[in-house]
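Handout, section 4.2: multi-component inputs.
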Amino acid sequence: MEREFFTQPTLKVAQQLLGKTLVRIWRGKRLAGKIVETEAYIGPKDKASHAYLGKKTPRNRAEFMVGGHIYIYLVYGMYWQLNFSTETKGRPTCVLIRALEPLEGINEPTNGPGKLCRALKLNKSFYGEDLCRSSRIWLENGLEIPQEAQIVRSARIGIDYAGPYWSKIPWRFYIKGNNFVSKK
DNA sequence: GTACAGATTGAG
DNA sequence: TCAATCTGTACT
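Output:
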């Protein structure tokens, strides 16, 4: 995928990522999966974002990079969370990849954000990696892009702490009826 | 230096 | 319903 794809508005990128193929080269092998579920986190105003009110720390600085870079971090002491930065440099926006449908070489579950990172052998060494230039992880166009009618919008998962408004805003997207979406 | 909570998961 | 497990961040 080109840089221009990732620099579009975050909500648009979150929806257009559905159906794209995420490719990861691991020990010379191709691991690939179709993205079936995403969530948008939109910078300073989003109370659920790590960059709420523009907060910038060593941990979340990748959120501020120009679209197409990897923001990866550890939650609950054991699960990695894969995000792609979006929009322009300095804008703290990103899309969380929540679930994949396995296509090639994947032998572990990928129906959750922590699980997909385990299946694709992703960790902090990917922090800040450029998806447009990396030789070990990138995105390819899927064969068919889901029609708008096949995309479901709902509230994001696991962010109740953000309060009644931000925890309910419908910034989670997934492919309708897909068996690999998390929280069946 | 110490305390604390989290964009999850799988077991009971 | 609940514990595992650890890092970034805030506070003393």
